[in-house]
Design a protein that fits this description.
Chain A has 5 helices and no strands. With about 160 residues, chain A is mainly alpha-helical. In chain A, helix 1 runs antiparallel to helix 2, helix 2 packs parallel to helix 5 and helix 4 packs antiparallel against helix 5. The relative contact order of chain A is 0.19. Chain B is mainly α and about 80 residues long. Chain B has 3 helices and no strands. The chains are: A mainly alpha (about 160), B mainly alpha (about 80).
Chain lengths: ~160, ~80
């Protein structure tokens, strides 16, 4: 069963805005409320909106289980990899080797109230991105498997 | 004073939406009322100064849970029958 044309058009329009807002929450995870899990859940809500609005055959054509599985695994590997790089540099597991280094996300935090400077935090933004990718794939694949379990036996 | 009024309004909305879930015979409308309940409880989390929990509740409670309910309703009947 596919929803009415109004619902499908609304899903198409809202999908981009929801994904951008979720990615914003992920990227500003070290500055504002939210983070990897919350942003990934918001992005997965956009995927769920598309899955609910379209029929089974159209969804199978648009969203691939393979891609979402790879995405979930890639997030986990990136999270563990960033933590393991610190051991390779001769420090402890999960050591924040990028903080105050001047390179990527390495700016020193200015004194005073939260200035909203995005280029700070060391490895924390990288780990937020990893968790966001992983939660995005994981929560989207839950919805997709729920739809696959029903399959084509749905009523009109 | 104004905060107390907002709290009372949100909690009254919670009770009304929870009652609507019980009384609706249309299961799609009941699922949407359950989503409204989750949205109002996330608003209450925000008023209690927990914006992290509010974002999680709005995304998972109001978004993903309602989507799972709607997908489940798609494969069954939309209207609830009278109890035998």
């Amino acid at each position: 069963m596919r929803m009415s044309k109004i619902v499908r058009f609304g899903a198409d329009v809202l999908f981009g805005a929801i994904v951008i807002f979720g990615l914003y929450i992920i990227m500003h995870g070290h500055l504002t409320p939210g983070g990897g899990f919350q942003g990934g859940a918001v992005v997965a809500t956009g995927v769920a909106l598309v899955i609910v609005a379209y029929s089974y055959e159209e969804v199978i054509g648009m969203v691939k289980k393979f891609v979402l599985t790879i995405q979930e695994s890639a997030g986990l590997v990136m999270f563990a990899g960033v933590a393991l790089i610190a051991i390779g540099l001769g420090t402890t597991f999960f050591f924040n080797f990028l903080a105050n280094s001047g390179s990527l996300f390495g700016m020193t935090v200015p004194f005073g109230p939260n200035s909203g400077e995005l280029n700070t935090g060391g490895v924390l933004p990288l780990m937020n991105i990893a968790v966001g990718i992983e939660v995005w794939g994981g929560l989207a694949i839950i919805i997709l498997y729920m739809l696959s379990g029903i399959g084509k036996t749905e009523e009109a | 004073m104004i905060e107390t009024i907002i709290h009372v309004l949100v909690i009254a909305g919670l009770i009304v939406s929870a009652t609507l879930v019980y009384y609706f015979r249309d299961l799609l409308a009941a699922a949407l009322a359950s989503g409204l309940f989750s949205f109002l409880i996330s608003l209450e989390f925000y008023l209690l100064q927990a914006p992290d929990v509010a974002i999680s509740q709005a995304a998972i409670g109001a978004g993903l849970t309602t989507a799972i309910f709607i997908i489940a309703i798609r494969s069954t009947k939309r209207y609830e029958e009278d109890a035998p």
